[in-house]
């Protein structure tokens, strides 16, 4: 059921028509609000559009899927994605090992950012009161007056005064900057000492995928790593994550020889797969990895969500999922607000802030897991045991990754539950190891003989001392 505003109801300006902003436009449009989306880029559906190539594909999991289901386009999106059933690890010798993400048919989808954004814009525009203004940058956001200046590509300026401003303008949000100028708003911005560079693995000579299709490929190398996600055009988008400086840092690779020597010693099996490695490496920029925290996310009639409120590092593949979940839960609250949108801001913040902080922490922690732990056989063994236990008692024990990627348990509850589970799991593991040890002693003949001789010896000594 959707509450439909009468003509003249609240007008909403969404700043930023990326993933979170476009989904918010769909959901507000469905409820009958007048929505204007201001997007500084060209419409990617137009012929003039030039793709700037930021993280071409994204891992879409349960939370994001639930949100786009609300927009009515889940099946359409899923049909254009590539399912990834697990991680395929490449060691330095090129040996592969595989770890499924979940059990049975649980998959993470490799989704094209552009495709997803365009499908969301298409469905948003089906609502008569939703309008996108492309090539329009917003400036001078005034959260006290609920206004901003919209500037188009020709430099034409107009002052916009909507009833509500939603800032979904990404990590370097201008709406958030305006909020920060108010007293009582906390803010932090932390850069990782690592950056990322995108490269490509084209199709092989048969025109097919050059590696196993249905996996996220990882080359874990301790302090740095490379990953690759499949695209429907049979390419893989490769992302190299490395420190900016120091040994194995981007700044150390200045020549083609240095690049090839580095790849030969660290990712040799990838070299034949990347014929454009040298060109792409030196042409493509290195991106920053930033974590943003802000508190609260609203003031007066202005609210922020998505990366604008909580940019996180990408190592859990959850930034977009969390941003879409923001829009989804914002919409749940709208259902009961009776048209007074700002009245839901405090509740929205109360629900989403702990979740955002939790996924921020989990994403940091997962970088260590991805670049290092997955290379350890003990770690992989433990993950297999966890999956086995989950299969036996699926509702009692849910592995951490499964909770994050395949459930909608709030992220902070995921952490709480994982702490409890890990404690019990470790105790059981210890007891199991002790029981196994005793079993071995009692059953295997040489051990049994040793123990019985030892016991006889002890008995005799005790007797002789009495
Ligand atoms: C390398 C990398 C890999 C990632 N991989 C994943 C993944 O696998 N899975 C996942 O869930 N997440 C992933 N993410 C995170 C994901 O990209 C973001 O969380 C997601 O894009 C956030 O969506 P958003 O709509 O909040 O912001 P954005 O997608 O950044 O959209 C913001 C929009 O606002 C517009 N804008 C900005 N300023 C203005 C202005 N002044 N006026 C008008 N418009 C403006 C921008 O043009 C843009 O369209 C990854 C991120 C990176 C960097």
TrEMBL record:
Keywords: FAD, Flavoprotein, Membrane, Monooxygenase, NADP, Oxidoreductase, Pyridine nucleotide biosynthesis, Transmembrane, Transmembrane helix. Its cofactor is FAD. The chain crosses the membrane at residues 12-29, 392-412, 424-444. GO terms for biological process: kynurenine metabolic process; L-tryptophan catabolic process; NAD+ biosynthetic process; quinolinate biosynthetic process. Pfam families: FAD_binding_3 (PF01494). It catalyses: L-kynurenine + NADPH + O2 + H(+) = 3-hydroxy-L-kynurenine + NADP(+) + H2O. Residues 11-335 form the FAD-binding domain. GO terms for molecular function: FAD binding; kynurenine 3-monooxygenase activity. One of its GO terms (cellular component) is mitochondrial outer membrane. This is FAD-binding domain-containing protein. It comes from Vannella robusta.
């Amino acid at each position: 059921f959707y509450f439909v505003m009468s003509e003249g109801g609240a007008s909403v300006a969404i700043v930023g028509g990326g993933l979170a902003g476009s989904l918010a436009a769909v959901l507000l449009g469905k409820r009958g609000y007048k929505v204007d989306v201001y997007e500084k880029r060209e419409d990617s559906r137009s012929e003039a559009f030039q793709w700037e190539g930021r993280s071409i594909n994204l891992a879409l999991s349960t939370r994001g899927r639930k949100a786009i289901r609300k927009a009515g386009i889940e099946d359409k999106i899923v049909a254009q994605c590539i399912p990834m059933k697990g991680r395929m690890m490449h060691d330095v010798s090129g040996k592969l090992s595989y770890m499924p993400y979940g059990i049975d048919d649980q998959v993470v989808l490799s989704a094209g950012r552009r495709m997803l954004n365009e499908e969301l814009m298409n469905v948003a525009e089906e609502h008569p009161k939703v309008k996108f203004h492309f090539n329009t940058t917003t400036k001078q956001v005034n959260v006290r007056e609920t206004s901003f200046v919209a500037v188009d590509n020709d430099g034409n300026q107009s002052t916009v005064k909507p009833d509500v401003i939603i800032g979904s303008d990404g990590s370097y949000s201008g709406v958030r900057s305006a909020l920060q100028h108010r007293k009582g708003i906390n803010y932090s911005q932390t850069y990782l000492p690592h950056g990322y560079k995108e490269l490509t693995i084209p199709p092989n000579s048969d025109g097919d995928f050059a590696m196993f299709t249905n996996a996220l490929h990882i080359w874990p190398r301790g302090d740095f790593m490379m990953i690759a996600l499949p695209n429907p055009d049979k390419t893989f988008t490769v992302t190299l994550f490395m420190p900016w400086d120091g040994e194995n840092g981007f700044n150390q690779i200045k020549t083609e020889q240095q690049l090839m020597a580095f790849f030969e010693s660290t990712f040799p099996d990838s070299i034949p797969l990347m014929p454009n490695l040298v060109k792409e490496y030196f042409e493509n920029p290195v991106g920053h990895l930033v974590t943003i925290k802000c508190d609260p996310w609203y003031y007066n009639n202005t609210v922020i969500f998505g990366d604008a409120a909580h940019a996180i590092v990408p190592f859990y593949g959850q930034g977009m999922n969390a941003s879409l979940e923001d829009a989804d839960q914002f919409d749940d609250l709208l259902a009961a607000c009776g048209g007074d949108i700002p009245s839901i801001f405090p509740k929205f913040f109360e629900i989403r802030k702990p979740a955002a902080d939790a996924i921020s922490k989990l994403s940091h922690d997962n970088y260590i897991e991805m670049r290092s732990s997955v290379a350890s056989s003990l770690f992989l063994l433990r993950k297999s045991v966890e999956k086995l236990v989950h299969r036996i008692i699926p509702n009692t024990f849910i592995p951490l990754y499964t909770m994050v990627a395949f459930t909608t348990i709030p992220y902070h509850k995921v952490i709480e539950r994982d702490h409890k589970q890990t404690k019990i799991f470790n105790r059981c593991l210890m007891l199991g190891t002790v029981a196994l040890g005793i079993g071995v002693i009692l059953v295997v003949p040489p051990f049994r003989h040793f123990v019985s001789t030892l016991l006889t010896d002890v008995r005799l000594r005790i007797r002789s001392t009495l």
